[in-house]
Amino acid sequence: MRARSDEQKALRFAEVKAAAKKQFAERPYHEITLTTIAEELDWSRANLYKYVSTKEEIFLALDADECHAYFEALLTALPEGCGFSADIVAEVWAGIANAHQDYFRLGEILSGIIEANVGIDRLVAFKRAYYEDMRALSDRLVSILGLDPGRMEDLITTVYFHGVGYVSVCFRSPLIASALAELGIKNHQVDFRQTMRDFIAMCLTSM
């Protein structure tokens, strides 16, 4: 049934995102298409085109949701005036990162694929929301730990890209696993939370 109101369209698009997220958990990004998403929803591809033009539009919206949830969780777990030490902040931050691994998984394909295949209006809205969230976390970290405000964007971005790099090891594709098995190389096992905790603590100590 075609959505008529803005509310109905939003509900339909939420269904689209849920289908894409489910597939992203089960298969590599390159195997997900508008056709596979439409099949997941039991829709026609033509019906899906009423809501999106490209697969990347769906995944940009997914990333926006994951990004905002990540920052909101950090702000909730690191309340104003909490008085946490750098070690406690690192522990909390790592726990939030661990609970939001999809945010980092999407980061692996964000700049080179997703952002390169969406319209400028969608990208501007995405970037606006990201920088609003980042500024809020920057202010909170400065307030809690007395860090240099001018270094907060680098800190948050550095933690992000470290997470992007390591989460890919945790979610290694079956093809890579097969290649390593053929070479007799054992998969490197990573404790994502502990890795993030150690790295964040190192970054905070350096500041």
Please outline the helices and strands.
Blueprint: H1 6-26, H2 34-41, H3 45-48, H4 55-77, H5 86-99, H6 101-114, H7 120-145, H8 152-170, H9 174-183, H10 192-206
Helix pairs in contact: 1-2, 1-4, 4-5, 4-6, 4-7, 5-10, 6-8, 8-10
What is the fold named in CATH at topology level of the largest domain? Tetracycline Repressor, domain 2
SSE string:
HHHHHHHHHH
> Describe the biggest sheet?
none
Report the portion of residues in β strands. Answer: under 5%
| Tally of individual helices | 10
Task: Report the C-alpha radius of gyration, rounded.
Answer: 19 Å
* Percent of residues in helices: over 70%
CATH superfamily of the largest domain: Tetracycline Repressor, domain 2
CATH domain class of the largest domain: Mainly Alpha
Mean pLDDT: 92
CATH hierarchy: architecture of the largest domain: Orthogonal Bundle
Termini separation (Å)? 55 Å
- Residue stretches low in confidence (pLDDT < 50, at least 5 long) are none
- Structural classification: mainly alpha
Summary keywords:
10 helices, 207 residues, Arc Repressor Mutant, subunit A, 74% helix, mainly alpha, single chain, globular, Tetracycline Repressor, domain 2
Question: Please, could you describe this protein's structure?
Answer:
This protein has 207 residues and is mainly α. It has 2 domains: 1-52, Arc Repressor Mutant, subunit A (Orthogonal Bundle), CATH 1.10.10; 55-206, Tetracycline Repressor, domain 2. Helices cover 74% and strands 0% of the residues. It contains 10 helices and no strands. It has helices at 6-26, 34-41, 45-48, 55-77, 86-99, 101-114, 120-145, 152-170, 174-183, 192-206. The protein is globular. 22% of the residues are buried. The model has no long low-confidence stretch (mean pLDDT 92).
